[in-house]
Each structure stands twice: as structure tokens, then as C-alpha cells.
Amino acid sequence: MTIINRRNTLLLGLATGAAWALPARAQTKTKVRVALDWTPNTNHIGLYVAREKGFYAQAGLDVEILPYGDTSAGALISNGVADFGVSGAIGFFTQRAAGADLKAVYAVVQTETGRLVFNDDRQDIQRPRDLDGKTYGGFGSNWENALISTIIRNDGGKGTFETVTLGTSAYEALANGAVDFTLEVYTWEGVKAELEGRKQRAFRYADFGVPDQHTTFLASSDATLKAKPEAAKAFVQATQRGYAFAVENSEEAAAILVEANKDMLTDPALITASLKALVDGHYLARPDGTVGEIDAAKTNAMGAFLFSSGILRDGNGEPLKAQPDFADYYTNAFHAGA
User: Quick one: signal sequence residues (predicted)?
Assistant: First the structure.
């Protein structure tokens, strides 16, 4: 499998103005609709860069980034409303297990961005087992309970804690001491806390027996990939080009994202700092510069964890009786050089 990294970006024209290595196309551009998993943020940076720098147009595509709404990207994709979409990994796995027509085609992030976080002044919390009996401000998913209880038990605790479902207000509750701990995406909420001078400490999931994962995918459907293989290839490769450009030109990429979403992104400093964290922490690109490639071992390990935890359920809400073949959940076939 050919991957994209810093050694061949110049050859492929990923981070430069060089011609993109795609076949010549007719002037009529193929329409592609892309759904977001949340309001625009730095996880979406490659999409906006590819659109605004003309990478999609050069690939013969007219890409529309749909406004975020109440319907999940997975539902829009599987029902044919969107051709591609940004999907959080847990939502992707659970929707696919329940029968949704979804297939991951690109790993937006290469390693886990989430962490279990608490205020720095909590001297009574030194290791995960200290969380037994404490109050967690959460978001109401089965994944959270499996994740946190696993982390605590693997540190020698019982894995018991109280949960208060708060959604995004959990971060305010943590700051004012109303809850003892929560989960956050380091490259967004964590960076925001740093900018605001709120000192935190955190536990990394993988340090306590939870598999590392690609926390965010770009997904499509088997129906779309089979019906429009050339458009799919063009879209994935131009998107790779957008993310590779963002890694190599983070300040320009941050400015592009802000300019494209002026009404929603009113804190440019957060965007710049978040993208810097994504780049410096090798989230968007691995240390060798690889962008987008879905790691088979990583994806299979997380799928197995979700299955064994009873999180993967069928269309009737019943736990899956047999572990799926997770190799069918994703493909790297549309990447450059594949």
C-alpha cells in the first residue's frame, strides 16, 4: 500500500501548487456532498483547505460542505443525502454494527485525541483507581461507562463511579468543581483550557488498557463507492492533499478555516492553537508524515473492544452475538497510489 508522507509530498503536489496527479477531467464537475459531525472545527481543516485552495476543483469536483444539523453524518451518508461525511469512531462503529451502509475511507486523526481529565488541584486524584466513588460529568453514551470502568479496573480499582449527564456543560461543571472528572478532546477542549489558564491533569486511555484508535473518520457508503468510484477516488485524494497542506502550512490553513466560517469561528487564537496541537502531537499526520491511512490493527482492536464491551448492537438494539469482520468496515483503496 502506498502512503502519503513528507518524503513524497513534493512529487504528488500535496503541499505545493504543483499539478495534482489525477486524470484530466471534463469541465463539468461532479457534485459531492459532505456532512460534518459537529460545527466546523480543526478536525475538518483538510476539507476546507481542499475546497478553498481549489484542490477539489482541480480534481473535477464541486464539493458542498453541508451545514451541521441534528441528523448525524452517518445517517445522512447511509440514506444517500451525503456522499461522504465526518464520523466519530464510536458512532461509526455502532451505526455500522446496527446495519447502516457505512464504510470508512480516511482516518482524520492517527491516534486518540480524547483523555480523562480533572482539575490540577485535586490532590486526592493521583491515579485512575482514585476515581472510584467520584462523580463524572458525562454525555450519556454506553461507550463512556465501558471506557472509564476499564481504565479504573485496570489500575486496581472497582470501576464504580457516579454519572451526571451534562453534555458540553460538563466542562463548566468541571471548572467550578461541580463534578470530579470528565472526558475531553485534548486538541479542542484541552487546548481551550490551556488558553484560559485552567490547569488540568489527565489520564491517557491507552496507558490503562484501552486500545488506541482513530477517533475520527471520513466515511462513505458502499452504495456510493460502487456507483461513483472515480469521484470517490478524486475526493479522497484531494482531501488527503488538503490535510497534508494543513500539516505543512498550519497558520495559513487555520486562517482558511476561520475565513470560511466567520460567523461560527469567532476565536481565531483557539483555531490556531488547536491546529498546532494536532500537528505537533502527530494527530493529523504520523511522525513519518503519513496522512489519512487507516491502520488495520488499530481499527480491529477498537472494534473488538467495543464488541466485548457489549456496545455493538444490531438493528433491534440487541448486542451482537458474533464479532464482525472489521476489515469490511473500512478501505484504503481510494488513497493516492493504492
Answer: 1-26
Indicate if 254 and 315 belong to the same structural domain: yes
* Prediction pTM value: 0.91
Among candidate residues 53, 65, 61, the one with its CA nearest the CA of residue 28? 61
- Find the CATH number of the domain harbouring 156: 3.40.190.10
Report mean pLDDT in 10-residue bins for the chain, 338 residues.
Answer: 40 38 61 97 98 98 95 97 97 98 98 97 98 96 95 97 94 95 97 96 97 98 98 98 98 98 96 98 96 97 97 97 98 90
Distances (CA, A) of 247 to 14, 16, 137: 10, 12, 33
Contact partners, residue 321, CB within 8 Å, separation at least 6? none
**147 and 106 in a common domain:** no
Residue-number span of the structural domain to which 186 is assigned: 114-208
Q: Are residues 79 and 226 in the same domain?
A: yes
**Are 245 and 49 within 8 A, CB to CB?**
yes
Inter-CA distances, 255 with 45, 52, 126, Å: 10, 11, 39
Strand order in the sheet with 162-165: 162-165, 135-138, 181-185, 114-119, 200-203
